[in-house]
Write a structure and sequence with these properties.
Residues 21-138 form the MaoC-like domain. This protein has 164 residues and is α+β, with helices and mostly antiparallel strands. 20% of the residues lie in helices and 34% in strands. The protein has a five-stranded antiparallel sheet with strand order 1-3-4-5-2, with helices on one face. The protein starts with 23 loop residues before the first strand and ends in a 6-residue tail after the last strand.
Length: 164
């Protein structure tokens, strides 16, 4: 019996060349957020906003049905984080910046966050050989499809070394 060579595939993000401008990448599965997630993130980041921590106080505030809000910085982190394995795992060099960040609707404990990313542009770096700038727009929606977060992001991504 002849021994077959082992075929291994390592999960990674996309090389610069693989990003398609105008493509929307859906990141699945989503992530259902819990009260524990919210309290942990909020306390780790020293955000003392009562809307995230104080259930009794939050219950007196109009518009939130007595619920604590999920920390918007956790929402932002989560929509970026949900994209990593599909887009940037091992191929990202750096985040260059975020802009146009918006949270048009709230998230609450028990909501499930789904993320998608649109590639809005890319160019080969003039100053960093073997790397390129990729512009992304991350979008978060809850389980009902309601837009809860949006952020534009500029990244530095490696070119495929096999194509250099």
């Amino acid at each position: 019996m002849t021994e077959q060579p082992e075929h291994r595939i390592t999960q990674r993000g996309l090389w610069f060349e693989e990003f398609e401008v105008g493509a929307i990448y859906e990141h699945r599965p989503g992530r259902t957020l819990t009260e524990a997630d919210n309290v942990l993130f909020t306390t780790l980041t020293m955000n003392t906003q009562a809307l995230h921590l104080d259930a009794a106080w939050s219950a007196t505030q109009p518009g939130f049905d007595g619920q604590r809000l999920i920390n918007s910085m956790m929402t932002l982190s989560m929509i970026v984080g949900l994209s990593v394995s599909q887009l940037t795992q091992g191929t990202l060099v750096a985040n260059l910046g975020f802009s146009e960040i918006a949270f048009p609707a709230p998230l609450f404990a028990g909501d499930t966050l789904y993320a998608e990313t649109e590639c809005t542009g890319k160019r080969v770096s003039k100053s960093r050989p073997g790397e390129g700038v990729v512009n992304l727009t991350h979008i978060g929606r809850n389980q009902d499809g309601v837009l809860v977060a949006r952020a534009a992001r500029s990244t530095l991504v490696r070119l495929n070394p096999e194509e250099l």
